[in-house]
């Protein structure tokens, strides 16, 4: 029998307007994540909040102890929900995330958060490699404009490219509405 957990990755203040590293559409993404969170809580499913902090004080964002590094109020953890602090894009690297999931018998992960092209990608690939069945709720994930070799990559294209790659071999991709209807 499968057991599902919701993994909310890095929905932190610095990614919102007026933060240090604003992502495209972050308010709408957080609203969708909040809907997923409410559904998981109502179903009694495990919820794991991932929070990123950089270890160096000159970090561009998510400085340890700063307001920007706090989890955004739209998805604030409640008592009993697990919060995993990480220092790398991959939520499993040098954390006890896998142990927490395994001790709780989790087999399936529903993943949302930020950034699509970095931490969501890294965590989803690692989770799939560990054998978890992954579902990424793509409209509950955010990216930002990127640049490569002098070429601007708009956030919507970065997000789409990474979701496409994840959907090819690592995860089932769904919208928030479709996920909630099927749950």
Automatic annotation (TrEMBL):
Keywords: Hydrolase
Domain of life according to the entry: Bacteria
Pfam family, one: Isochorismatase
Domain Isochorismatase-like: 5-148
MF terms (GO), sorted A to Z: hydrolase activity
PANTHER family: ISOCHORISMATASE HYDROLASE, PEROXYUREIDOACRYLATE/UREIDOACRYLATE AMIDOHYDROLASE-RELATED
Name listed for the protein in its UniProt record: Isochorismatase-like domain-containing protein
